[in-house]
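Pilot study result, target chain (166 residues):
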Amino acid sequence: MSLSVPESAVRPASHPDTPPPGTRLPAHYEGCFGCGNLEGGMRMSFVVAEDLAVTSTFAVQRHHQGAPGIAHGGVVSAAFDEALGLLAVHHREPSVTASLQTQFRKPVPVGSVLHLRTRIVGREGRKIWCEGEARLDAPDGPLAATASALFVVVPMTHFAEHGTPE
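Predicted structure:
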């Protein structure tokens, strides 16, 4: 099951300030579980791609497992949440996850590298629909999971009101 994109949603163009394809993106916040450099974090890396997309990798470590030797499904969903959220590089406005659906296709073994490709599929007002796929050990490897999400653009004050001063 995936989130339905209404027919009234349009596929936006990238913001003029979007870095060119091939640009590596830094962590948006060093304290982030997904892209920061935290012990026990995911330490994901991201590259701007064409067609309103971002590619990323996630090396699955022992501390990411649920069942013995297999990545925890919540960690795989967190990888999608991070990769889908980084699509904001294309619209240059802060946004937050409103809904995220993950479909698991294959187990993700500890020691494997997930290659994610996420892209924006539509926008209507503050709502942005995105989708992604995760493949095992190579960008064209076996399909491990797919995801669809709805993000909502928020003012920057959202983070000051609901987060910490840092």
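One observation from the pilot: Residues 118 and 132 are 4 Å apart (CA to CA). A full batch analysis is planned for the follow-on phase.
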